[in-house]
Amino acid sequence: MYGLENISAHNGWAISLVGITIVFTGLTLLSLTIAQLHKILDLWENKDKYINNRNHKTLTSTPADVAPQPGMPAENLEDIHQYKLIVDRLEQPFSLPKLLDIAVKIGLERPHSTINKLLVKKIIVSDGKGYFIWKLQF
Amino acid sequence: MPASLELLRSIELFSTFTQEELEKIAPLVNPMKVMEGEILAGRGYRARTFFIVIKGNFMLSFENGKAITLHNKGDIMGWSTLVAPFQYRGTVIALTKGEVLTLPGQEFYLLLQSESVLSSKIMDEINSIIASRTPYHEA
After folding, report:
1. Which pLDDT score is estimated for A16?
2. Considering its fold, how many domains does chain A have in total?
3. Predicted ipTM of the assembly
4. CB proximity A84 to B under 8 Å
5. Residue A55: what pLDDT?
6. How much is the pTM?
7. CB of A47 within 8 Å of any CB in chain B?
8. Is residue B113 part of a domain?
9. Residue B132 — pLDDT band, cuts 50, 70, 90?
10. Which residue range forms the structural domain that includes residue A93?
11. CB distance B68–A95 less than 8 Å?
12. In this structure, what CATH number is given to the domain that contains residue B95?
């Protein structure tokens, strides 16, 4: 027997199928692992921050000095707190580009979008002269 | 792909344009998607593109630290493409993802040079915008 008959007689097709399945499963698992690797590395590099956040959340669900805004999701309260800390260190009324610049430099997550949310929620409002005012009272 | 006449007609800047005028300007106008944090124009750089907001929120900042935010459909950015010395006076950053219409500055300028009626309509609007924004970029 030669060729295809020989392959069929010795379970060649089934063996090939199993081989292909094993290789593709392996490659899929490998690609999924690599795709998620950044999260593991991020967790490893910032393990102190995660541990602190976890401890902080068990003590209090929101930053102590931030009053919840009606309609403001809880996850934004941390953002408000961080931006308020920056604004407190700027001259009042403050420069919006400067706030954005600092937020970018210190690596806050999605600073453009967060500042936009603060503007939309009217936590930050224009003074009408090109500078901005923090409106939310604590 | 150039913007549709329907879309142009919905923009305040072109609202007084006739069908013929819209057809002249339409080939120059292209929609462009914008990513959050994208810089559309840099202060001091040669003004090459004129922008019209379709959707999204934008911050226009000036050298003195002042800024205005633009979020309305039809808001204009990059009028410096039409006025000497053809350098952007401010920096435009997208605060959210959005969409703008772009017009190549030089071609837009040449079209306005050759079409006096069109130029008059556009420049009336541009002049009112320049007047409203001048206090922001002055020290």
Report:
1. 94
2. 2
3. 0.83
4. no
5. 60
6. 0.69
7. no
8. yes
9. confident
10. 65-134
11. no
12. 2.60.120.10
